[in-house]
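Q: What changes when ME8 is included in the input?
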Amino acid sequence: MADPYYLTTAISYPNGPPHIGHAYEAIAADVMARFQRLRGREVRFQTGTDEHGLKMAQKARDLGKTPRELADEMSALFKDMCDRLNVSYDRFIRTSEAVHHEASQALWRAMEANGDLYLDRYEGWYSVRDEAYYDESELSDGEGGEKLSPQGTPVEWTVEESWFFRLSAYQDRLLELYRTNPGFIEPESRRNEVLRFVEGGLRDLSVSRTSFDWGVKVPGNEEHVMYVWVDALTNYLTGLGYPKQTPEMAKFWPADLHLIGKDIVRFHTVYWPAFLWSAGLELPKQVYGHGFLLNRGQKESKSLGNVTDPLELAERYGVDVLRYFFLREVTFGSDGSWSQEAIVLRANSELANSFGNLAQRVMSFIAKNCDGGFTAAAPVEPADSELRAKVLQACAKELPEAFEKLSFTAGLEGWMQAVFACNAYIDEQAPWTLRKTDPARMERVLATLCGCIRDLAVAVSPVTPAASAKILDALCVPADKRDYAALADDPALGAIRIENPTPAFPRLELPAEEAV
Ligand code: ME8
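A: The predicted holo structure follows.
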């Protein structure tokens, strides 16, 4: 039986169309999902939309729509984005689904049965944009003297009757978790932030609202709706069929990885473990808080209105190019900048001119000069086995080890070095000269290269699935030989057949208005 692997993204607020940060997260998670499938694991991959809360209710009112109309319209755009970016989710969840209301209420009842919920009055500073309460000590003063949250968003003094969750009771257990299981929060910088926050002391958490009704009703007290983060976090269970004892719950819970952005690490590593403990459920194995993508150094967000349509970029430059760019350009875990020049530069130098050119040059040479195929009979020479060893090391060992730790950038860096080694080998071996002087040696050189191209295409296929498939199709690699386990066998790939090679990565031009 394959080892199960459950991976989730954050669920996005559909109060506007998806922005580039959403695309970034969906792509990174998809790369991990495809990577784990190639490792032979049985993957379940969930993404979706977080449709409740004051932020959605206010936005709908501003637009003259009902929250459900807004959610329906925008959630469809998020799903479409995932489809168009080749994001291979198994479940796209919407928190307005009836099954999700049932799951959230079941979790609530379990926490209540454990004695962790009580009714009281709440007074505090609330940020609608962050859907979060903050302590006075966490606030700063804005330019006009207004109070701002640590995220720089406006806060309002809010007073209401509210249900509370006994978060304070979990402080020691949380600290113990971070100490004994340091891999629970990654990368390390985020772990340190959370540790400092929890060491500072935890107050009980207000977990219901009475000021609006767009949410999941509190069971037994229906004038309250749950605080949106309570139901939002529950989505990870809903998707597996909770509260029913489904085969999916048995197989995939606890989740292996919640992949989320750095701004919501606190919710996933403080509140969520406490809720799960309270309800008697196991904790996810890891929460990874990735960095933010900045547009030439500036934050993009729906609230600020400086958003780029990720689908426009995908259409202009290609889905695989965008996927590669995101993971290659920015060290995963850190913030990073993007620009159209950077996309074009990276795509041309590494994909079109290096890997794409390597594959196309070798395959079209074989198609043209060797009748599309041959069986290499000449002996393998040291230069051939050295190259194969180097490429295998990068593709079957270093890249998988790096991707397993979400070090996508490092894995791709090593992969690129292997591409460069192949290009240097072609120049040294000069198969076009061997064609006249030693055709048998030429075949061995080409066979060596085809083996390397196969390995490179398989290794990078979680990132560039369509282009890799195109290359592997042209190399006539059978469908069941396109995973990491297959890379080790027949490294010389003696029998070669090439069908219809066409360039997998065209050269890109910068649109005129972007050129500087
Ligand atoms: O936070 N770069 O939804 P959301 C990279 N509904 N990632 C970014 C980003 C950027 N510029 N901007 C946002 C929510 N993100 C909640 C989540 S989960 C139970 C509930 C990331 O639409 C952000 O960090 O504001 C988050 O992981 C995801 O996009 C959705 O953000």
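Observations recorded in class: The chain has two domains: 5-291, 339-497.
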